[in-house]
Amino acid sequence: MTTTSMWLEFGGVENNMEELNCSIEDFAEVFSEHFWKAEEVSRNSA
C-alpha cells in the first residue's frame, strides 16, 4: 500500500455473490461519476 492507495472491502459474512456483485456495481457507478468530474491536483507537498 502507498499513500495514494485506497483499500476497499465489499460484502460481509452473510452476503451471497449476487449481493456482492450489486454492491460492487453500485460503488463503481458512483465512484466513476466522481472520478471523471474530479479536477487534477498537484502532488507537491508544502
Could you give a short description of this structure?
Helices cover 46% and strands 0% of the residues. The chain is an all-alpha fold and 46 residues long. It is elongated, with a radius of gyration of 15 Å.
Give the averaged pLDDT, no decimals. Answer: 88
Describe the sheet with the most strands: none
Radius of gyration (CA) equals: 15 Å
Total of DSSP H or I helical runs spanning 4+ residues:
1
From the N-terminal CA to the C-terminal CA, the straight-line distance is: 23 Å
Features:
mainly alpha; 46 residues; 1 helix; 46% helix
Note down, in words, how this protein is organized.
- It is built from one helix and no strands.
- With 46 residues, the chain is mainly alpha-helical.
- The longest helix is centred in the middle third of the chain and has 21 residues, at 17-37.
- The protein is elongated, with a radius of gyration of 15 Å.
- 0% of the residues are buried.
